[in-house]
Amino acid sequence: MELEIDRTEVLRYLQSSKDLEDDNINRLIEEATSEIKKLINFRYLYQKFPIELSEDGIKVKGTTLTLKGKSIKKHLNNSKEIYIMAATLGAQVDKKISYYEKVSVTKSMIFDACATTAIEAGCDQVEAEIKEEVLAAGNEDITFRYSPGYGDLGIEIQKEILRILKAPKKIGLTASKYNMLIPTKSVTAIIGVITEKTEVDHQAEDRIDRGNENENLEERDLEFETRHCKNCILYQDCELRRKGIYCGAKG
Ligand code: SF4
């Protein structure tokens, strides 16, 4: 799978304007993009599971995994099945990031932003593949990707997710004792299958569209951010926030 590294996205991760005219930064982005493409070993997997609501949370049937918290319950409100996915850029990208951290702060930041852009692009493609499968089965849609750590969904389920997908063996993806993914440029996520859309889903879609249309963060409706996201540990990296979606942690 060829992964696109979109310059505008890289600049967003660097918190720079998409119109930035800096020859040096532009050259470093080009260099990092071409270097990272040679190092990426993109691997992914996903599996579909039925779910059921229990007193403890949402039980993923056939596994020992229970998804706890208000936000994931809300996210999967219309779903009886979920897909759990995992994806990684592989260990070589991490090694290069560590190398650049020692030799140049600027280069390491740019390389890191390119890597984040690449893993998100890869996840977009995996999500599109899942969506195709879901629609072909006669369902209406899927939810957006929801990762451990979003809202009040605990990050401690990371290891259990990897275990049930057999991710360590199949794609070399593991988690540290603090539940950080290794390699770091990796993602796990939960996607709900929507058999029938409600008004709430349509509103969420509108918010995504609005987020995508407005490329400048300042132009977006920032209400949810000022109300909920400012104190979140994921504030800098949260893909949902960047798309103008609120995880529902307190809703
Ligand atoms: S940054 Fe906002 S949307 Fe993202 S996980 Fe945190 S509270 Fe939720």
Automatic annotation (TrEMBL):
Domain of life (superkingdom): Bacteria
Database matches in Gene3D superfamilies: 3.40.109.40
GO function terms (MF aspect): methionine synthase activity
The protein's name in its UniProt record: Uncharacterized protein
